[in-house]
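[Q] Does anyone have a clean structure-token version of this?
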Amino acid sequence: MLGTSADLQGDVLLRGGLSVAQVVEGYGDVCQAITEHAAETNATVSVDEYHTLNLCLDVATARAVTAFSGARDRRTATQETERLGVLAHEMRNLLSTALLAYQALKSGAVGVDGSTGAVLGRSLRGLRDIIDRSLTEVRLAATLRNPERVELGQFIEEMEVAAALDAKAKGLALNVPTVEPGLAVHVDRPLLASAVGNLVQNAIKFTPAGGRVSLMGHRNATQILIDVEDQCGGLQDGHAETMFRPFDRKGANTSGLGLGLKISHDAVTANGGEIRVRNLPGKGCVFSIALPPIE
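[A] Here you go.
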């Protein structure tokens, strides 16, 4: 009976959000509670009874931990399967759209500079974004790091080139002020590029045609800052606190996996920095990456 109860308790504790250490601690609390109650009521506990109690709690702890770990592994596997399913679904949709556009262009009935060509371009850029984010996830999971000195001005110029076509295709102005010479950071360049690229793509995605997206690199008293400002109209109440969670896709445009901001957060953290968002009510928002400078 105790073993069966422990099996159920392990699964319940996982659903309650507890850690495996808290599961073990809980059964230690049971032992302490029993001994304290015996002392308060002057109940006599023999050595054999105390030994039996500890043996039962030891078995219960082991079974609860086993159940907890098994349930956690099953939940993780389910979540990973769901994530891969969403990834495959998104890629299939983009590829199908790209193939249909290609067939239309191949027939010669439409021109490559028209709306069909634009559909093909959007689909290919969508596939590129998903692949880039997946590669970054692999790099983060494998803890692949290759820190190097990165000149901020040169880095911002490279990000501007990559973003210019996307902004033009959306009908947006891309504002990139000149960066003060000599500013540099010590980071894993691919991870930082992925973080900034995701922020810029997100800004382009949520800024209406005719708007402006800004990419700025500068320094304050203690940090190097990379700011991405959009004109999305501002954030909903409570959105700033949740937008770095995976699969969070609030807003009118719900295309994509909702992983970009979470990946940006993880990539920046892996580089020893932090990422923040500032709401501009009625106008847009500013994402800021803060990194320690090097001289």
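[Q] Thanks! Anything notable?
[A] The two ends are 66 Å apart (CA to CA).
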